[in-house]
Design brief:
This protein has 228 residues and is mainly β. It has a single domain, classed as Lipid/polyisoprenoid-binding, YceI-like (Lipocalin, Beta Barrel). 13% of the residues lie in helices and 46% in strands. A hairpin with a 2-residue loop joins strand 9 and strand 10. It is elongated and about 70 Å long.
Length: 228
């Protein structure tokens, strides 16, 4: 009996020791993983000034309708430049507010009216970058001033450099960017509700931007035979 009790006590002690060992975290080599904000270098991008290619660029937005569905709209005319320097990037973009399209003519007309963008008085939406923060890999945060409906506020866009290419000798670069804003901050304050008091149009707006931009094609070499 005494021997049996001794064996049981020993087994219990070993079990408790094993549990204690399992609960103790083990140090790994992953303790030096970088965290957001530690990055100092932007993606490697070919330097130069690039002109936004409107045919291959888009500016879209999404907003809730009655809180149960999403309306997606886009602007058909995006212009501007992207300038890439030594670990810097600057962007200036202009959007023709009258080109707004959501796939519904009546809704588009309402959005163009003074209830929303008032395109007759405020025909352009502009974005001018004011700074940049490096991120992980090909990502970065683009800081800038967004002017819409005659009101300017700072915004931050989460951007990604997609790469570079060329077409018929013209160098190209590509980017995407997205961000969140509240439309009423820019004076788009129309806020009708249904019979249950639910907002017809949400205040939170998601911005989605894709840019393909063209650099200057290399100058053709001089014809060395012309003087002969």
């Amino acid at each position: 009996m005494t021997m049996t009790r001794t064996l049981l006590i020993a087994a219990l002690a070993l079990g408790l020791a094993a549990c204690a060992n399992d609960a103790t975290p083990t140090a790994t080599s992953d303790d030096n993983v970088s965290t957001a904000g530690d990055y100092t270098e932007l993606p490697a991008m070919p330097a130069g000034t690039y002109t936004i290619d409107a045919a291959h660029s888009r500016a879209e937005f999404r907003v809730r309708h009655l809180g149960i569905s999403t309306v997606t709209g886009r602007f058909g005319d995006v212009a501007g430049t992207v300038t890439v320097g030594d670990n810097t990037i600057e962007t200036n973009a202009t959007i023709d507010a009258s080109t707004i399209s959501t796939g519904n003519g009546d809704r588009d007309g309402h959005l163009q009216s003074p209830d929303f963008f008032d395109v007759a008085q405020y025909p352009e939406i502009t974005f001018t970058s004011t700074g940049v923060r490096a991120g992980e890999g090909n990502t970065f945060t683009l800081l800038g001033d967004l002017t819409m409906h005659g009101v300017t506020h700072p915004v931050e866009l989460q951007a990604e450099y997609l790469g570079s290419a060329s077409m018929m000798g013209t160098p190209k670069v590509g980017f995407t960017a997205s961000g969140e804003i509240k439309r009423q901050d820019w004076g788009l304050t129309w806020a009708e509700t249904n019979e249950a008091g639910e907002a017809l149009v949400g205040d939170d707006v998601t911005l989605m931007i894709e840019i393909e931009a063209n650099g200057e094609a290399p100058a053709a070499p001089a014809d060395s035979t012309a003087a002969e």
